[in-house]
Amino acid sequence: MSALTLYHAARSRSSVALWMLEEIGQPYGIHLLSIKKGDNREHPYLDVNPMGKVPAVKHGDAVITEVAAVCCYLADAFPEAGLNIPIGDPRRGPYLKWLFFAPGVVEPAIFDRAFPRAAEAPRAALPFGEFDTAMNVLAKAVTPGPFLMGEKFTAADVVIGSQLRWATIFKLIPERKEFVDYMARFADRPAAKRAQAKDEQLANT
Hints:
Glutaredoxin, alpha+beta, Glutathione S-transferase Yfyf (Class Pi), Chain A, domain 2, 2 domains
């Protein structure tokens, strides 16, 4: 039995963790869940993640949930993969910022626009401020690139890159050249291709 287990629902946020696991190159097992059937809202999965969300990763006795935290943890736990910025490196601060910019800013901005409220919320009440500002900040961050941390591809690119790819597919963000060029730089990564192929296969099981 693998020391790493991914609790996974195909074509969901846990697809980000699937890509990350492929990037670190360690053996892992998959515990497949069906969101449609409600597997994630029932025991025994609720004993793993009481929030009833995916992904969750079990590594030995540790259970990690929340996709950005999962990717951060895996990058630090397996530094030989070269996907983290180590503690003590001054670049770790910006690296952590981009890791958590995705769930803290980009995703709320996208869903706020996709599901508009009857009344607009005050800017100060929203974690992203305003949609256009969030998109402009992100566009600047990936230009000139090639990646968020310059030449080094990191777990932050897995998280932000996955989010941009998903939002682009569903036309939830503007098709900006900065985003298109950035996504093209990691599209041919072998780990990304393996994860996509595996996710498609799991979605059809």
